[in-house]
Amino acid sequence: MTNGQDEVRMTLRVSRDSGRTWGPLTEARVGDSPVLPNGPGGLPPCTCRRCAERNAVDSLRRES
Questions:
Q1: N or C end of the chain: which has fewer CB within 10 A?
Q2: Nearest CA to 9 among 23, 32, 24, 29?
Q3: C-alpha R_g of the chain
Q4: Dihedral pair phi/psi, residue 62, rounded to 5°
Q5: pLDDT tens-digit profile of 34-51?
Q6: Is the distance from CB of 27 to CB of 10 less than 8 angstroms?
């Protein structure tokens, strides 16, 4: 380890089918660049009626 750059900060596995199967183990290390979502809404964006209406109003405000 050089200056702690190889130190593992977090490990995770993702399930996309309610825990029946899991993807490969992924490690986030100290020196890795963070992966950030494209928008401030997070991943995935919320599609509930309230958020959809708010996003529609916000998009109209930005265009005006």
A1: C
A2: 29
A3: 18
A4: -70, -30
A5: 666 565 555 666 778 888
A6: yes
